[in-house]
Amino acid sequence: MKWVEVIVSFILTLSFLSFPSCGFQSDELLVDDEEFGLEGAPQHRSPEPIPTRSPPVTSPTRKRHSDLDSDSKIQFSLDHAFGDSDFSPAGTFSARLKTWSHGGQNLLESDDFYRIRLPSNVLSPPGRDFIISSVKARCLPRESLDEHFVIHMEGVNVLAVNYGSPGSCPYPRNLKLPAKWSFSSHTVLKNSEQAPRAPVFTEEILGGENAEGEVVQPAERSFWAKYWMYLIPLGLIVMNAITQAMNMPEEQATGQVPAQGQPSAGAVQRGPSSAVRRR
Amino acid sequence: MAIRSFLILFILFFFSSLNPILSLYEDQVGLVDWHQQYLGKVKQAVFHTHKTGRKRVVVSTEENVVASLDLGQGEIFWRHVLGSNDVIDGIDIALGKYVITLSSGGSILRAWNLPDGQMVWESSLRGPKHSKSLFLVRTNLKIEKDNIVIIFSNGRLNAVSCMDGEVLWEKDFEGESLKVQQVIQPPGSNLIYVVGFASSSLFEMYQINALNGELLKHESAAFSGGFLGEVSPVFSETVVALDSTGLILLTISFQNGKISFHQMPISNLVKDSFGPAKIIPSSVTGIFAIKMNAVTIVIRVKDESKLEVVEKTNHETSISDALSISEGQQAFALVQHASHEIHLRVKLAHNWDDNLLKESVKMDQHRGLVHKVYINNYIRTDKSYGFRALIVMEDHSLLLLQQGEIVWSREDGLASIIDVTTSELPVERDGVSVAKVEHNLFEWLKGHMLKLKGTLMLASPQDIAAIQSMRLKNSEKSKMTRDHNGFRKLLIVLTRAGKLFALHTGDGHIVWSHLLQSLQKSKVCQHPIGLNLYKWQVPHHHAMDENPSVLVIGKCGPSSDAPGALSFVDTYTGKELSSLSLVHSVAQVIPLPYTDSTEQCLHLLIDADKHAHLYPKTPEAISIFEREFSNIYWYSVEDDNGIIKGHALRGKCTGEVADEVCFDTRELWSIVFPSESEKIIATVTRKLNEVVHTQAKVIADQEVMYKYISRNLLFVATVALKGSVEIGSVTPEESWLVAYLIDTVTGRILHQVTHHGSQGPVHAVFSENWVVYHYFNLKAHRYEMSVIEIYDQSRADNKDVWKLVLGKHNLTSPISLYSRPDVITKSQSYFFTHSVKAIAVTSTTKGITSKQLLIGTIGDQVLALDKRFLDPRRTVNPTQAEKEEGIIPLTDSLPIIPQSYVTHALRVEGLRGIITVPAKLESTTLVFAHGVDLFFTQLAPSRTYDSLTDDFNYALLLITIVALLAAIFVTWTLSERKELQENWR
């Protein structure tokens, strides 16, 4: 995984004003989470975005959010809708309304869609259009309402947001009411990753066309591995010849076995022929 | 001894059954593949029959083909396919030996040698402004023994030498609003008239010396009524035009440089005139035609201003250009359509009342109306004039009529295929005569003896020829029943003309063709467009007696809210079962994976207002649909906006369109690409009917990787706005390409990768868990191909055997896309030499056979490239284990092996699409490539491991078995005898 992610956890009730002082560094692990427990925090894939890994593109972007939020009060407003209801403001990107006050339970019972939306441009909301994302409502409740944002950014533009539960949401979605009607959010910011460059082998450019030839060529094997199929019959024939040569003097000496019917492959054939004889 | 001979036989048999080939041998061409050449709808035709020798007709078509056809059989002598951006404006024959073509909006003039089609010269013409191109070849205009061609294009009049394409003189017409309508050259004079309109109410006439381009006279006159559309020249110094209302005919004469107008309201000529008229341009002296609604009126001009209606008809009428048959005599042809036949009349221009020729030809209804007619004359055996006519029909076919008969016809509609689907043939029923088989037994044995001779290299050249022709004319392959291997199918193709063809995969012959009623021009639907073809009914199991049928979807007009039209066509008989004109538009068609009790597939049509309509409109379909209501998701791509949206259903339609099968939809997710930096240029999904054999992939060190297989993956490629132009016009820093993998149910971006310094066009193919795409790398100045493979990590820990034994694995748990996906991707890029026109991938019934990419190259050939070359796990030095797995050492470019061209020596001119269809035999896939030409073949990416080849020698096998048996008996008796002898001793 080359792409770098910055994981941010936002606490609902905290007003954004409480952390402009933190600047960018505060994004790593937000505020002290003793009070709210930050459910799901242990599941984070990397709760500490190692600063060395974070690309230069990411940091200015993130910084801008915080700076802007504090200075000129520009925030992403986050709207949500229950099923088919109209969008109503759910808070800013950083601060969510505390509860799913109205309609939450109905939504869980009907397992309808819980939809959120973001402006597509951070600087001049709503940009060209709103970015919408949705999830089946029953995917959210755990202890509290767990949500997980993956925000894909391109400069100041929000490309897409993937909204859903932080873990799995297995299919028969059973009705389960959360203990706390509050959200615990996890946010991942993603940027496009660089494509690996096509390998350039100057020495192989000429040979590139022969790649097929290289492929077809099997690896060098031992002499035995290559020619066993020829060697075994050869060995048999040699053995034949030897036994025959050994038999010949024997026959001459004893004169028991007639020489004329002796098959050439004596050693091998003797078994069956004796069997025939027995029959 | 017997054992030895048996051994030899066995070895022989063994070698004959082994077929160690990678590519095709010369004698295998045409066994399973066929190739058909077409031209497209003819735009213009010029005959060349003056000289002795082969009579031919040169045509230019809407597919930008210029071709020379044999007038006797309609075969192609030669053909050139100009590029899709090189539209032909006009053709003619000059000097009796060159074909001159004007193309690319009047900027390229080429001469081709008439007998063999070699290009003789090419010259490019430029001009001050864009304008209509007019083209005039006159053999009697000579400058120093050199014939000239007069061309008006891009606001400039050019005289070009026929010999070498040199521009002899040129004259600009730079008047701001001047729109040149006609260039007229009176026969026998050295003058050229250029007439046109300026500022909508001014008629302009320029008289020019054809020898040096000198402007002799310039006159203009205003007409308060304004002008509409085209002008039609009736005499060398008179033209006819319509005023801006389209109700008054204007005869404009400019004799001796004096412009005079004569007005004649159409209502004076025709009693019951309805609405504005349109001039049908013709070049016949003294005669022109106008069209009002469906009525065609032929008008003769007498003297200066006298107009006389000579014919008024409700039938579709086409008028040919004038053909001068002798000094001062012009003939022209009129073709009229009447239900089952067409009437062809040839008349002299100055004598309307008599017909030189009157013929009626029976015409197949499925060719539609006559669109164009071209005539040519010949001298009959009794020294009188005979005429032949070349007609272009509504279905784009081309026919030659002579002596009241169709001499030949060409189905040139097949050059513009819009969509392709396949259909199974009927099952072979009982009652196939046994006698037929017995009759063939001798032939069968004879054939195999011949083959045996061939195998044992005993065959004479005649025998070899006989073997070859036997293989090619195998009647098995064009049978009209289903075969065991699934090689025989029907290819159902929809052409731009709105005609449906069924082609047999065995030899490519047309089984039936049908001009669809719903895609014909009618009062309600002026510009019908065919869109797509879907399988509507695929009978198997309990609906076996029904014939399969296809659904054809079209719409009226190019706008997005034009109402749609549906047709249902039986694929065995080609009959249109029913057709529907819809009240709503068709923006998207979603074939649902559900069928009703008669095996009709459910289809969801999304209209422009984002309502979903279910077809078929039966209560049963609705009940099936309602069961799956909450599981239906789809996406829409707004290319020009750069927005991708996901949708789901909400409930029954509310409001005025209340309908049982109409549903409201809602938007679930959206992805908005920044308009200033990204533009969508390609979107690709997996084929709906693709089969994946296994999810697990065992890699070298006995590890297992699980492919992320989802039907809901979408590949999107975007480029920087600046980079969406032609290659070479931006620097690498200004252009980048981003590839996305998007889940279309939740809108999640699963993978996103940027290629800096890269540019479109992007061609991509998606299959199983990988996507391969082709683009241009500006930094390396080469085309590149990249592969992305996506693997599911959530199942990765199911490696433990004990877990599997004890059932503690999650392999059988249902997958929900609402779970957070845990995927990893692997990707790699390689250089690729060719630019690409299309990419496809082979598909087989069970998905076991390894895959090949089929790449339509710029040379209009299809190249098969093993998927193993695009494996992101390739490394420079693969380990022994990886080599055994089949990983190829990494190279920077993909190899192009000449033997792996699927099209071998042929070219599929104007290649547009490649379609792969699985055969029933797992190893084999059927490939159909279409463009101006059609090509079909069978392909076995891992060779035919599951069947014997067609030319497998059964006789040899039989003989071997017989010989074996004989050997057993002989050796047995021998040994018996020996035993007896031994016992007697």
From TrEMBL, chain A:
Predominant place of localization = endoplasmic reticulum
Keyword S-adenosyl-L-methionine present in the record's keywords: the answer is: no
From which source organism is this entry?
Answer: Gossypium hirsutum (Upland cotton)
- In the UniProt record, what gene is named as encoding this protein? LOC107951835
Q: Where is the composition biased (Pro residues)?
A: 48-58
Keywords assigned by UniProt, alphabetized: Endoplasmic reticulum, Membrane, Signal, Transmembrane, Transmembrane helix
Annotated membrane topology is: Single-pass type I membrane protein
Span list, region Disordered: 39-69, 252-279
> Polar residues compositional bias: what residue ranges?
253-263
Q: Give its localization.
A: Endoplasmic reticulum membrane
User: Can the keyword Transmembrane helix be found in this entry's annotation?
Assistant: yes
> What protein family does this chain belong to?
Belongs to the EMC10 family.
How is this protein annotated for GO cellular component? endoplasmic reticulum membrane
> By its UniProt entry, which CDD domains does this protein fall under?
EMC10
List the Pfam families hit by this protein, alphabetically. Answer: ECM10
Protein known as: ER membrane protein complex subunit 10
Position of the signal peptide: 1-23
Automatic annotation (TrEMBL), chain B:
EMC1 first beta-propeller domain sequence ranges = 24-412
Per the UniProt record, one Pfam family is Beta-prop_EMC1_N
**Principal location:** endoplasmic reticulum
Keyword Signal listed: yes
Domain ER membrane protein complex subunit 1 C-terminal intervals: 767-984
Q: Which residues form the signal peptide?
A: 1-23
* SUPFAM superfamilies for this protein: Quinoprotein alcohol dehydrogenase-like
What protein name is recorded for this chain?
ER membrane protein complex subunit 1
Specify the species: Gossypium hirsutum (Upland cotton)
